[in-house]
Design a protein that fits this description.
This protein has 80 residues and is mostly helical. The longest helix has 13 residues.
Amino acid sequence: MKFQTPVPVKRQSPEIGYHCNLVLMGSCFVDHIGGKLAYYNFPSLTNRFGVIFNPYSIANLLERAVNGKLFTEGDLFFAE
């Protein structure tokens, strides 16, 4: 009896290697993968804005980063 489902995986291009600078953004799964990459000394940044589950929020952060738009005091609000 087999307790696994074999899934053939084809090599993709370009491959991730030690020459790549990686930025990982997303859920706690990304934290775990980022931890593995850091353990093996890959140059990477993981969840620099904290854990984010919403793809729209991730897209907004990436857009701000690409456009060099910094956060200002007006972007913040006080809650409780």
